């Protein structure tokens, strides 16, 4: 599995021959890319409908969309998406097969209204657990990556995602103000019991400016064994 952070919450994940793009938003100060520089993936995964997570979704409308049914409907009407997993999207707790990857949708504690001329309910906000095999009680799902979406600290990280979905790595928001800050994000990493942690959703706007070194220090203070990687945008990371 290969991971590439493109700034903010935008991630490109490669599993086998399958390319997945999460929350495409390239108008951020970390990346040097524009959406036109990026080849269309096989799947576009959207955690929720806020503008800083779907702004460039229209550039990849030939991909298969993975999102809640409400957000799928919005993107089909707004961006011209024709294909969605299951024909209608998916919902919290579900796992779908996406080429060589398996994608499990889990809740995120956040909001999810789309402010347009008419307010749109985009369903529940989510995070995604991406694995090489289907998660089950009987077997190892292979290398597994958790994109937490925009979320507050929540006990499901400790009680469900960590022990049962068992991610090897997690990308967590650290920007504070709209999501967790460094301290609560560090607690999330500890609860998830991951080997690798990546900060995201910071430095894009003034309210979420953060020193990621504070996150590194907070993870260490929890006693977690996770290795924190403060990535440069657009540089691949091999998670094997």
Give the DSSP E fraction (strand runs of 2 or more residues). Answer: 25-35%
Any idea what the shape is? Answer: globular
Q: What assembly state would you assign to the polypeptide chains in this entry?
A: single chain
Secondary-structure-based class equals alpha/beta
Count of DSSP strands? 15
User: How do the helices and strands follow one another from N- to C-terminus?
Assistant: EEEEHEHEEEEEEHEHEHEE
**Average of per-residue pLDDT values:** 96
Major sheet: size, sense and barrel closure? 7 strands, mixed
Helical segment tally? 5
Helix content: 10-25%
Detail the poorly predicted runs. none
Radius of gyration computed on alpha carbons = 16 Å
User: What is the strand arrangement across the widest sheet?
Assistant: 6-7-10-11-12-13-14
**Alpha-carbon distance between the two ends:** 6 Å
Task: Name the descriptors.
six-stranded mixed beta sheet, alpha/beta, single chain, 25% strand, globular, 5 helices, 240 residues, seven-stranded mixed beta sheet
Report on the structure:
By secondary structure, the chain is of the alpha/beta class. 20% of the residues lie in helices and 25% in strands. Strands 6-7-10-11-12-13-14 form a seven-stranded mixed sheet. A six-stranded mixed sheet has the order 5-4-3-2-1-15, with no helix packed on it. Strands 8-9 form a two-stranded antiparallel sheet. α3 (156-165) runs parallel beside α4 (182-192) and α4 crosses α5. The mean pLDDT is 96.
